[in-house]
Amino acid sequence: MRKINLKHSISLICLILIAAALIFSTSPKIVAQATDGTTVSIVPKDNIFYVETTPVNSTFVVNATVTDVTNLYNWQVKLHFDPSLLQCTKAFIPADSPFKFPVTPTPVIDNTTGYVMMGASLLGEVPGVNGSGVLATITFKIISAPTTPGESLSCNLTLDAEDTYLLDPDIVEMPYTPIHGYYEYALDTTHPEIVEVTQDPPPDNVLETQVVKVSVNVTDYETGVKNVTLIYTTDNWTTSKSLSMEFNATSGFWEAEIPGQALGTLVKYKIEAYDYAGNFASDDKAGEYYTYTVIPEFTAIAILILLLATLSIAILIKNSKKHLKPKN
Ligand SMILES: [Ca+2]
After folding, report:
1. Ligand 1 centre and the CA of 224: distance in Å?
2. How far apart are alpha carbons 274 and 186 in whole angstroms?
3. Tell me, what DSSP letter sits at residue 107?
4. Rounded distance, CA 196 to CA 291, Å?
5. Taking a C-beta distance cutoff of 8 angstroms, is the pair 250, 285 a contact?
6. Which of 140, 269, 291, 313 could disulfide-link to 232, CB 3.0 to 4.6 Å?
């Protein structure tokens, strides 16, 4: 692989610049004056991905940007990464970058040592360029994945202190603050949360053979909820059945129906959920389970309610007839 060390010895760019300086020796010299705010940054700074949402072999892009630079004539960026985790697949200066200068040596991508290096020079077109913008756009491919939940693989995306530089037309280095990047690839470790469980009809009013609709609100940080299961028993967990709950996009709840049961049956159930990273959550109402007992259609209470209702209606009818009577 062709390696260019542009800094330790006199670089290709410098040679060109020296030649250019000789040619353009009558050009007015501009004093290098980097403002206090000059930075070279990796943007985004944090590049955090999860296995379940960003599969291995996915790519992501970072920019090396410069801010508030004055009289930039020649620049170089060398960015280090861990080549056991990432491979650089592409590096270029965007066409619309104000720092895409005429002399641009081919970027050096070293996926063995783990660095990418590139630069550009104005070649005699003094003065330099002021402002902020993208120096380089760099694409990385994720090549290694963590294998156990909670594990994460990470590395810094470090701007080389020596080989990242900003030069003025006199080939004088201008100070800048480096803002390095960070990469992390993790198996998500936040569990889904079963927030709320409701049933219709309510537990004290389930009749013979009546289907019970159970609605569950489940939330999950990061990856989202993959599936929710209702597990119920009618013989105190000697046997049990699982119902896959369906997500209702309108209500935002996960729903399932427990089939109608015979009179007197005690039904117990619990809810389980997984997120897309394989994290598990269970809600068995702190070991008590959600329960209901199937009651007859006409219990004593029901009859009493019915009698009261009948009486109320009778009174209402009587009252309304009274009102209909003319006053005189
Ligand atoms: Ca999660």
Report:
1. 6
2. 17
3. P
4. 15
5. no
6. 269
Task: Tell me, in angstroms, the distance from the centre of ligand 1 to residue 268's CA.
Answer: 27
For residue 316, give both structure tokens. Answer: 């209402």
What does the alpha-carbon distance between residue 150 and residue 23 come to, in Å, rounded to a whole number?
60
173 falls in which pLDDT band (50, 70, 90)?
Answer: very high
Structure tokens at 69: 């630079």
CA distances from 283 to 193, 195, 220, 244 (A): 9, 9, 14, 15
Distance 279 CA to ligand 1 centre (A): 6
Local confidence band at 132 (pLDDT 50, 70, 90 cut-offs): very high
Give distance in angstroms: CA of 127 to centre of ligand 1.
Answer: 53
**36 in helix, strand or coil?**
coil
The string of pLDDT tens digits covering residues 190-201 is 899 999 999 999
Between CA 264 and CA 275 the distance in angstroms is: 36
Q: Global pTM?
A: 0.56
Amino acid at 127: P
Q: Where do the domains of the chain lie, and which CATH numbers do they carry?
A: 12-186 (2.60.40.680), 193-296 (2.60.40.10)
Distance from C-alpha of 42 to C-alpha of 27, rounded to nearest angstrom: 34
Residue 280 bridge partners (DSSP): 274
